[in-house]
Amino acid sequence: MLLHAVEAGAGITGTPVALLHGLFGSAMSMNRVQRVLAQSRRVLAFDMRNHGASPHEAGMDYHAMAGDVAESLAARDASPAVVIGHSMGGKAAMMTALMHPDSVARLLVSDIAPVPYPSHGAYRDYAAAMQKIVLRAGMSRADADAALAEVCLDATLRAFLLTNLRFGTEPHWRIGLDEIAGGMDQILDWQVPPGARYDGPVLFVAGELSHYIQPEHRAPIRALFPAARFVTIKGAGHWVHADAPDAFADVARGFAAG
Fold first, then answer.
1. Which of 51, 86, 238, 241 is catalytic?
2. For the residues 29-43, what does the mean pLDDT come to?
3. At 175, which helix (H) or strand (E)?
4. What is the C-alpha separation between 213 and 130, in angstroms, rounded?
5. Is the distance from CB of 21 to CB of 48 less than 8 angstroms?
6. How would you classify the pairing of strands 5-8 and 43-46?
7. Which of 21, 111, 182, 211 could disulfide-pair with 25, CB 3.0 to 4.6 Å?
8. Quick check: 170 and 48 in contact, CB under 8 A?
9. Which of 87, 103, 110, 210 is catalytic?
10. Which numeric CATH code is attached to 5-115+190-257?
């Protein structure tokens, strides 16, 4: 599947950078990082499948997402790239490196590990609540927010989820909400091909206040990415690039430069 991309820094030579956002995000989720990196790099921020302006299709497994990324990089003459992914996008980035290593020059993984996350089932509840919102002409953002409040107590997270809802005379979800909800088990899972391994440079960036990367994850990380290094950004939670944008952008810029 060819993914929609927002491109910056066109015409700049050197290894391009690809940005992969997390669940319910879009290319614009990474816009601050893109602006910084595009000062010296060609940077493509992708909408992942069923997100943003990319096509909608059943299946949210990481093998399919990795194929999307590799195909989209090749189609834009941007392969190999420095691939930077957050959360779901981080898993897609890892799988791209494992399955299509010629597409990945360097890999930065933001606040996610190569393991299943079955305990994060709240995302199923969020998707189900979004599906239950009755879309009607004239509805307001406050109406939609109230409909999500019963399952999502975090107002900031509700606002993030509702960036995917288009209001007006015909309100609609711009994401493939049904496809995402149907593929939630795949999003929370992690299955790698036997013997998979990526020997290139890899940096795992964790948020100090996040619990997504745990000490016990070091072993599976090293098994797949033997050259992995680790950085923790102080004061940041799971959305590292949003919580500490300047620090994250500095880390990403340094890593991309090699």
1. 238
2. 95
3. none
4. 28
5. yes
6. antiparallel
7. 21
8. no
9. 87
10. 3.40.50.1820
Could you give phi then psi for residue 231, rounded to 5 degrees? -135, 140
Per-residue pLDDT tens digits for 81-103: 999 999 999 999 999 999 999 99
Assign 3-class secondary structure to 99-115: HCHHHEEEEEEECCCCC
Indicate the residue type of 179.
E
Q: What is the CA radius of gyration of the chain?
A: 18
Specify whether 51 is catalytic: no
Mean pLDDT, to the nearest integer, of 224-247?
97
Tokens of 62: 């990481």
Catalytic residue among 125, 145, 178, 189: 178
Strand arrangement of the beta sheet that strand 228-233 belongs to:
5-8, 43-46, 17-20, 81-86, 104-110, 202-207, 228-233
Q: Look at strands 165-166 and 172-173 and give their pairing.
A: antiparallel
C-alpha dist (Å) from residue 208 to 184, 205, 213, 233? 26, 10, 10, 6
- The arithmetic mean of pLDDT across residues 147-174, rounded, is 93
Q: Taking the domains of the chain in order of start, what are their residue ranges?
A: 5-115+190-257, 122-184
Angle of the 141-148 helix axis to the 122-132 helix axis, nearest 10? 140
Q: Does residue 238 carry a catalytic annotation?
A: yes
